[in-house]
Predict the 3D structure of the following.
Amino acid sequence: MKWLWISVFSGILLLSLLILSITLGWFGELPPLEELENPKTYLASEIYSEDGVVIGKYYLQNRSNSNYADISPNLINALISTEDIRFHEHSGIDFRGAASIVAYSLIGKKLRGASTITQQLAKNLFPRKKFDNVFNKATTKLKEWITAVRIEERYTKEEIITMYFNTVEFGGNSFGISSASKTFFGKKPIDLTEVEAAMLVGMLKAPTRYSPVSNPENAMRRRNTVLNQMRKNDFLSDDAFDSLKIKPIELNYQEDDHNDGLAPYFREHLRLELLEWCEENGFNLYKDGLKIYTTINSKMQAMAEEAVYNHAKDHQRKFYNHWKGREPWGTYTELIDAGMKRSDRYRMMKAAGASDEEIKTAFNTKVKMKVFSYNGDIDTVMTPLDSIKYYKYFMQCGLMSMDPRTGYVKAWVGGINHKYFKYDHVNIHSKRQVGSTFKPLVYTMAIDNGWSPCFVAPNQPVQFEGYPDYNPKNADSKKYNEPEMTLFRGLQFSVNNIVLYLMKQLGPTGPNSVIELGKKMGITSKMEPYPAIALGVSDISVYEMVGAYSTYANKGVWTEPVYVTTILDKNGNVVREVVPRTVEAISEQTAYIMEKMLERVTAHGTAAKIKYQYLIPGAVGGKTGTTQNYSDGWFMGITPSLVTGVWTGFEDRAIHFRSMDLGSGSAMAMPIWGNYMKKVTADTSLFKVEAQFEAPKQPLTVEINCESYNEKIPDKVELFEE
């Protein structure tokens, strides 16, 4: 007996010395207190819409933290029943459970592990290294015990449960209960039912083995084991258990894909911008759990995406019929060769040292592939060269919508399908010829210099000194062939002669003056100082054009389009606030007169369908734009509280429609704007219809009533509308 006591005492003393040695760091450092207060876990950065919807994440591990109040009691009950029934009784180590393990081991029986939830949390926060020997395994286990006790000293039971659920992995690239709930059931953690909670808790033992996606039978058995534990521990009645255990597994499985969800083009543009900002400010976009609050409205974004997709699909069918039996690139076969050389396949083969002949053979050899179609992805067999030709047929689109008073971008649609068409047709680097949508800037110069929109200008071809070969004509010389017309009518029907007349009246410096005005209105793209600028030959982005038109709707003040308001770090501290820049570009009077001129375009001009077909209520102005050979179709539309621009066209300018009825801005772009605004204006929570554009409080110094104007100038022909 004496030796027994000596052995017991010696064992206790040895264990105490070992624990003291571990605490002092003789067998490796324990996690410092600072890390216990701020454990290092990778957190996904989340993107929020202005209406509070998470529209995307950036992550290495798809993890978002939940609060205790966000976690369903079903989850907590399932976890405690299965992993640690004495969780509320111990202080990190369940000695009773540990003793049971030893006793059962001595008699040759197996029992589940005695690691408490707190010990498992310690292991999750500070992962083990591989064991070299039994001694290292024992010291590591003791380290976890000590860390668990320290965690219990610093956190409440509720905080420990919350941290546990935020650190565990569920598979499907889901880390933490918030991500897992969304991935497997499309729900928030608070909304999980008993069977859903039991399934997720059951997966923690082995996420792959008990995955309901890849191993549904295993998942069902494991789920029912958890439900049975809940029954044993009085969290479920016998009747409830009997009814729940026979329920099938019903998933709403949606593994995160950056190509899916709302605003994929916007999210990618934002990602590239944020990576640069994070590098400059000491953050990691993929690990630091930033909360990025944007101006995007989830409802308006969905409406915009639907309008783009539906019209593009419909117009795509017309394009196929239009070019039936012919290739739309015609003799421009170099477009196909250029497309091949831009492909990943070509670049990889070149980098691997393949010869031109080998590359040619590869591009003409049929392979299995999946291609985009408006009726769903198609599994097919075709040559890579044919796939390049296939994609050349697709019409592309870009739409941006913003509040002109705040600069807040409400919707951003960069294309028709981000999975197959990565190029974003909205951002400032995506420039296309703007056509007649640029004409209002020339009219703005005239109005700002005191010209009345009732002024009657000659409708004759204009020649510019120093440009003998530049002799542009009206797009439709038969339809609008009266000898003279008002500026109102010139813009209303987009008559080239009238805007060129105004450009000539601005004098030799006219083009430079228009360029300077464009810069004040937010256009930073290069614009050449030639007379042709009046017809919109410059390449400008949708982003810039929407910003420029917002100047009219904002009383002459250009407000920088912005899409981020605030960024918070993982602790809720504000680390960035965005305030848009503003520039007083034109007078309030000029802005108002331009609104009235653009309003006539939608009432009786080239965009009259906005009113009589799409029935957009209230004050609306707009301008269509069509470039040479119908390569680009534009529509810019304004209301007092929303400005939206739409571009449509094809990847290559040589590919296009061949007729005005199919290839004009009013045919390609305006329907998207009309269908989008029809939905927006119908939702009173999103849009307040305003009957009129607000006039300046001071009396106008420029006459816009053409009857009064003609009375003052009786020798002018009365060409006013209405």
User: Anything to note?
Assistant: The CA atoms of residues 97 and 212 lie 30 Å apart.
